[in-house]
Design a protein that fits this description.
Elements lengths: L2 E2 L2 H37 L8 H22 L7 H4 L4 H32 L3 E2 L5 E2 L1 H4 L1 H22 L1 E2 L2 H6 L2
């Protein structure tokens, strides 16, 4: 009962996937650049930047949390794939659907409680020019929204029997 997803769905899906992939790749590059810069300045010039480790750490945290949303959309998030070999195909479909539904709820809760945590954290980073500590913590509600949205995409595919593959994503452009 797999049918091709509607054109609008493929287009929105492609935009979200490519934007998220581009952003996470950029964060990875920035993390490596800041780390190399900090190490070179520390050990070659004996003058490390006081902000280098903090910025590289933020890039790492943002990368991991935003890449999780991409993993959810690609259906590569944590699941019990090993046990599925022992179960009937119908049971596996139900369990995968329930897993995606729980992931959606997790994303919604991460948004709600992450926003509360980010808005209530006091203080600022002196090494980053007084950046409020809530700014880097805004990744929590952002990740929550993206995880819920990506879970909604997978749930829509499962409910309506849609199938989106990479060739269709290219055709949607």
């Amino acid at each position: 009962m797999n049918q091709s997803a509607p054109r609008w769905f493929r287009r929105v899906d492609r935009v979200f996937r490519s934007t998220l992939a581009w952003f996470t790749c950029s964060l990875l590059v920035l993390m490596v650049v800041f780390t190399i810069y900090t190490v070179v300045m520390r050990y070659v010039f004996n003058d490390p930047p006081f902000w280098g480790d903090t910025v590289a750490l933020f890039c790492n945290i943002w990368l991991v949390l935003l890449a999780y949303a991409l993993a959810v959309r690609e259906r590569q998030d944590i699941a019990s794939e090993g046990i599925y070999e022992l179960l009937a195909p119908r049971v596996v479909l139900v369990l995968r659907f329930l897993w995606q539904a729980m992931t959606f709820v997790f994303g919604a809760l991460l948004f709600w409680f992450g926003l509360n945590a980010a808005m209530s954290v006091p203080g600022q980073f002196w090494e980053l020019g007084g950046l409020p500590k809530r700014a880097p913590m805004m990744v929590l509600p952002l990740c929550g929204i993206l995880v819920a949205l990506m879970s909604a995409f997978t749930l829509a595919e499962d409910i309506w029997g849609w199938h989106v593959d990479d060739a269709q994503l290219v055709d949607a452009s």
